[in-house]
């Protein structure tokens, strides 16, 4: 798996994505577009493409960081309650801060996502039986508890339809003015790259890290803050995208090993490619209608997840 091939594939898929949709835009007429086609390209297609790439890169790297810090290949924002906690935070912001700006809602979602991730890490510390499969199952149960609480209050205050429609992963609504919050993830991911080697050392355990002079708790907290912030931004902007942070880092580690710093660009590129492929499929399967990205990624991702579970001994997961 060479990075340049992934980058070439990403570029080809990105260009293809710009010309897939109900509004017909051909590459041959790119320099002779009508006014309507120009507006479609600049106000809809390009913002959608940027959203896909940033969401794919962000969630994949979040999964890689969580797997490194927990030393478990099946832990991700999906299986650690982070996505569900962010969703709960958004529901709280809809209840208490009805007229708040998207940035304020993002801060509330971030606070709940961070709190939920910290609680999961504390649960992890108290579990003695740390089987590879048992840990993510605990995370899934924890996430389902939070999701049930969210659903209860959503029904109680008549927000269930609003929550379901808004938080279902969907790039169809990504137009200029709605996706810019995703830019927050760019400096956050740069920080993740700077701390990559420290995350790798922290993944070897608290005692080992401390002996090397690393402030273990601070590094872990920085990692969890990065995960919570990126997850909350993606959930608030795009919606729930399941399994992305789980399967992409596993696929990369199968071919590249476990060096987090080396794996970051591969994880970012493959994550963006995976979401682009799922998005293009969702647009052409029932054309001119569209399947939400949460559904296509969920179906494909769950299949890959089951495959990884069944073949974990072969891959050393």
UniProtKB/TrEMBL annotation:
It is found in: Cell membrane. One of its GO terms (cellular component) is plasma membrane. Keywords: Cell membrane, Ion transport, Iron, Iron transport, Membrane, Transmembrane, Transmembrane helix, Transport. It is a multi-pass membrane protein. This is Iron compound ABC uptake transporter. One of its GO terms (biological process) is siderophore-iron import into cell. Its main location: membrane. InterPro entries: ABC_BtuC-like, ABC_transptr_permease_BtuC. It comes from Halalkalibacter hemicellulosilyticusJCM 9152. The chain crosses the membrane at residues 48-67, 88-121, 133-155, 181-199, 219-252, 264-285, 291-310.
């Amino acid at each position: 798996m060479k990075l340049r091939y992934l980058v070439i594939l990403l570029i080809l898929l990105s260009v293809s994505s710009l010309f897939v949709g109900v509004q017909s835009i051909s590459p041959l007429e790119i320099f002779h577009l009508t006014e309507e086609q120009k507006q479609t390209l600049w106000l809809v297609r390009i913002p959608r493409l940027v959203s896909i790439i940033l969401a794919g890169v962000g969630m994949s790297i979040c999964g890689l960081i969580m797997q490194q810090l927990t030393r478990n290949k099946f832990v991700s924002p999906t299986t650690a309650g982070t996505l569900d906690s962010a969703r709960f935070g958004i529901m709280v912001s809809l209840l208490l801060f009805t007229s708040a700006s998207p940035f304020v809602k993002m801060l509330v979602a971030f606070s709940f996502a961070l709190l939920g991730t910290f609680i999961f890490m504390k649960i992890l510390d108290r579990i003695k039986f740390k089987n590879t499969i048992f840990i993510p199952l605990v995370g899934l149960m924890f996430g389902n508890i939070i999701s049930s609480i969210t659903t209860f209050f959503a029904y109680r205050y008549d927000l269930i339809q609003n929550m379901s429609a808004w938080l279902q992963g969907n790039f169809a609504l990504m137009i200029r003015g709605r996706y810019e919050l995703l830019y927050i993830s760019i400096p956050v991911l740069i920080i993740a790259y700077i701390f990559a080697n420290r995350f790798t050392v922290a993944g070897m355990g608290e005692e080992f890290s401390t002996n090397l002079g690393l402030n273990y708790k601070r590094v872990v907290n920085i990692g969890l803050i990065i995960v919570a912030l990126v997850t909350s931004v993606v959930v608030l902007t795009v919606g729930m995208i399941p399994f992305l942070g789980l399967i992409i880092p596993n696929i990369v580690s199968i071919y590249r090993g476990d060096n987090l710093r080396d794996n970051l660009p591969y994880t970012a590129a493959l994550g963006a490619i995976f979401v682009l492929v799922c998005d293009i499929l969702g647009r052409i399967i029932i054309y001119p209608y569209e399947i939400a990205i949460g559904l296509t990624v969920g179906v494909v991702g769950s299949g890959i997840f089951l495959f990884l579970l069944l073949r974990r001994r072969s891959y050393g997961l």
